[in-house]
Design a protein that fits this description.
Layout lengths: L1 E2 L1 H17 L5 H23 L5 H14 L6 E6 L2 E8 L1 H13 L1 H7 L1
Parallel strand pairs: 1-3
Antiparallel strand pairs: 2-3
Helix pairs in contact: 1-2, 1-4, 2-3
Amino acid sequence: MEFAPEALREMAEFAFKVNESTENIGARRLHTIMERVLEDVSFLAPDVTRRTADAEQAAALTERIKAESSAPLPYSERMTASGPEKVFLITDEYVKQMVASIVKDHDLSRYIL
């Protein structure tokens, strides 16, 4: 898993904005935002990285992952010395998709974030 510098900045800005508009709980807010951003990755990564020899099984797995994720999972495949590996790149756009709607709703962000 990798974080784009812009994604880190976006998460920090969301935490700062919510801390300003609701109770300031400091870094715990950032922790909660990171949990929200990584929620789908945490639960679906094992399925994404699982190797499937059967093409039909792989297609079914891909469809299930798409159906269960809140936003398209940000992963790609790259070659390493030990072979291909899937890498999750958390971008600022992904952070916005996962958190922006909650941050916009003041009452909701108070309870969720």
